[in-house]
User: Which sequence fits this backbone?
């Protein structure tokens, strides 16, 4: 059974809303045969990443960069997973109060280095997530999970 790994840093209620919407999309009953594993960015291991077939990354934009927790996760698994995870699909959601471009750029840099394939448009939210934003997060989770069934 394919596995979707959601690696997230969720320090705020706004990010919690986004995370829950991603999980709801990924675990939609119409998407059968995908195991969805959730790991906090500070707890994810190289073994978790190696065992997964696709990824969704969630982070706040902190001072124009991905969170330190997500950066730590990448530092932890980058080299152990570099050659073994090339070509795997991923998606990303980012929340910020301003200046999310640097966070998106830094994630793109690392995932490009990993050889991962962006399989859905990033979901980037500034301020409080609205209904539209939560729907985009749901679609992100559902899209990545559904691609693993193909």
Assistant:
């Amino acid at each position: 059974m394919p596995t979707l790994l959601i690696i997230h840093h969720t320090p705020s209620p706004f990010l919690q809303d986004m995370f829950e919407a991603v999980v709801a999309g990924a675990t939609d009953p119409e998407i059968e045969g995908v195991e969805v594993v959730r790991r906090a960015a500070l707890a994810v291991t190289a073994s978790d990443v190696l065992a997964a077939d696709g990824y969704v990354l969630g982070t706040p934009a902190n001072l124009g960069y991905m969170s330190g927790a997500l950066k730590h996760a990448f530092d932890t698994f980058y080299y152990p997973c570099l050659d073994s995870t090339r070509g795997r699909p991923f998606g990303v959601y980012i929340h910020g109060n301003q200046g999310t471009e640097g966070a998106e750029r830094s994630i793109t840099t690392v995932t490009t280095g990993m050889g991962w394939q962006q399989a859905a448009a990033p979901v980037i939210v500034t301020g409080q997530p609205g209904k539209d934003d939560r729907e985009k997060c749901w679609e992100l989770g559902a899209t990545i999970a559904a691609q693993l069934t193909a």
